[in-house]
Amino acid sequence: MMAKITKGSSFGGCVKYVASKKDAEFLGAVGVRLKDYKSIADSMELQSQMNPKLGKKVGHISLNFSAQDKNSITNDFMLKIANQYMYAMGIRDTQAVVFRHNDTDHPHCHIVYNRVSNSGKTISDQNDRVRSTKICRKLTEAHKLYLKPIEGKQNVKQDRLREPDKTRYEIYNSIKDGLRTAKSWPELTEHLHRQGIDTTFKYKANTNETQGVVFRQNGKSFNGSKIDRQYSFSKITARLNENALRQEQSETVSVEIEQRQAIRQKANMGKERQTYQKSQPIHEHSHGSGLGGLFSMGPTGGNGNDEGAAELERALKKRKKKKRGRSI
Asked: Of the candidates 21, 83, 160, 256, which lies 20 to 30 Å from 117 by C-alpha distance?
């Protein structure tokens, strides 16, 4: 649920619009004659003369509900919410009429009231839009109506917006894009600067403690929370810190993966070397048997083996001759 507030000086034109609209349905009224829309307007005009200095004496509010609540918003229920809204806004002790219109997909009604009260006093409009936003949210939650999520801005037909909403949404889109990659305020402000948006910070009195942020574009300024509730200084700071932490964790993981790959590659090279050595055939060399160690044979030169055999044969013959001599 949301409310659109306007003010004017002509009861006739405003009442005619809300009462004569095609398929308009009368929901309720207080303090006026109901013969026709002219009698309603004349009643309000007459009372407004009690406070002739008030220029914008006509109060006009449209209460708009989500299309998702269409089946649950009956006329009685809509009038009940309209009464609760007016009471919370301080619109009391005055004339008012409520009409429902059926020319859109979403349910909505129009409230026309006299800003000159029954006692001739002015019904205050101080901070009425701020108060209205809070009251609409409370009523939405209290009656369990559809609550539009923050992401709902994506569904707004931005090409139809007028100032200052047009600039507000341009800043919203730029902040949203910047927060996809920015990891600090300097990175974000640089991104916004390239989009023609200036960023300034608000500080706590007599300190260097930052307590707010303001974005400026096209000669218009908005507090971060006025762009969107998720774009207050504290919430943007939290988002930037999350991005920085995510980047740090990503880099740490990348280093660990590289280290593991290097260790694995080194281990594989060692296995390949061992496999290569085991697969080599055993070769016999001229100086040994190829088994090495104690079973190696020393080098021999020339006909050393033949000479050794002949010498051994001569020694055996001598021993045989000695044995023969002893036997004789």
From this structure: 21
